[in-house]
Write a structure and sequence with these properties.
- The chain is built from no helices and 24 strands.
- By secondary structure, it is mostly beta strands.
- The strands form five sheets. Strands 12-11-15-16-17-18-22-21 form an eight-stranded antiparallel β-sheet, with no helix packed on it.
- The radius of gyration is 25 Å and the shape is elongated.
- The termini are far apart.
Length: about 325
């Protein structure tokens, strides 16, 4: 008897197939039961097979829609037949086929009012991911400064993992953009950004000198003809006078959904846009451009190659093979 699942890990919300095969037996009088933990699941297909010599086998398939809580769930196939003294059972942990993408943010300590050359603790928070292994990289002005191949993680009550990693940076009058990148296997990176800018000595003023910016896409690739959602979030914006513009290949994308909400003494911004994918989008890019009081504060360009799945990827020029992301950032807040 065998029980097999999908060859690759899949994110919550997706349905994945499991196949159960048993035999040979003396007749086709089978009974197959699927269980997810204590709940019975209906089989999507079931097929008895004979070898022409009076021997029968059975193959049964079931589809399971994964959720994050399936980190601790199991799938069981049970086969009964008159030839058996007791049923045959096989069980698989759903954690073997599940991937939960982390949410990432960067916090600063202290959180504002930096002086020139002040050392600031930057902490990258990666929350609720599975499996536990990932790679964390710190960037300064788009240059890699530190890579941690296996950072220490903490297990959450729901079976997922979280981590915090702190790195120290220096605030300058010119300002610098710092980013934390988190990568699971060969998946697109999840990243969060923060800009540090010191105030000149003797200068007074209100507002936060550190603002966090995050631009994220879907955890998995999609076929041409479908659409993906890109999301921009930020915190620590001094006022609600924020404008977010999305462009695909320098053409404005329609109908972005943008909200600006007060949080404490500053504002949080969330903007989402649907991006239609085409077969030639292996060479396309999307620009997220953010202004505060008509002043640019964020600019991030993302290559759609990292989100596109299809045979056309095999015809990319050699210089584009393995291309994951093209970034062009300018943080001015």
């Amino acid at each position: 008897m065998t029980l097999t699942g999908p060859a690759q890990r899949t994110a919550p919300g997706n349905s994945v197939p499991f196949n159960c095969t048993a035999g040979p037996f003396s007749s086709s009088d089978f009974s197959v039961t699927w269980m997810k933990d204590r709940d019975e699941l209906p089989a999507s297909s079931q097929r008895p097979v004979t070898d022409g010599k009076g021997n029968y086998s059975i193959t049964s398939k079931v589809w399971v829609t994964l959720v994050r809580q399936d980190v601790s769930s199991k799938i069981t196939c049970e086969v009964t037949h008159g030839d058996l003294a007791e049923p045959l059972r096989r069980t698989m942990n759903l954690s073997q086929v599940l991937r939960v993408v982390p949410t990432v943010k960067v916090t600063t300590e202290p959180s504002e009012a930096y002086t020139p050359h002040q050392r600031v603790n930057l902490t990258c928070h990666a929350s609720h991911f599975y499996p536990s292994h990932l790679q964390l990289t710190w960037m300064e002005d788009r240059h890699k400064v530190l890579t941690v191949l296996a950072p220490q993680v903490m297990r959450n009550p729901d079976g997922t993992y979280s981590l915090e990693h702190t790195w120290q940076a220096e605030a300058t009058l010119e300002g610098s953009e710092f980013a934390c990148w988190v990568v699971q296997d060969d998946q697109p990176p999840v990243r969060a950004n923060v800009t540090l800018r010191a105030q000149a000595r003797g200068r007074s003023g209100k507002g936060r000198s550190g603002s966090s910016h995050v631009l994220q896409g879907p955890p998995q690739r999609s076929e041409p003809g479908t659409s993906i959602e890109l999301t921009y979030t930020s915190s620590g914006i001094p006022s609600q006078q924020v404008k977010v513009t999305w462009l695909k290949n320098n053409l404005v994308l329609p109908d972005p959904q943008t909200s600006v909400r007060l949080s404490g003494d500053a504002y949080n911004v969330t903007s989402r846009v649907l991006v239609p994918l085409q077969g030639d989008d292996v060479f396309s890019h999307v620009l997220c451009y953010v202004q505060h009081r008509s002043i640019p504060i964020f600019r991030d360009t993302v290559s759609l190659d990292q989100y596109l799945r299809g045979k056309q990827r095999l015809f990319c020029p050699a210089g584009f093979v393995g291309l994951r992301m093209s970034l062009s950032r300018s943080f001015l807040i």
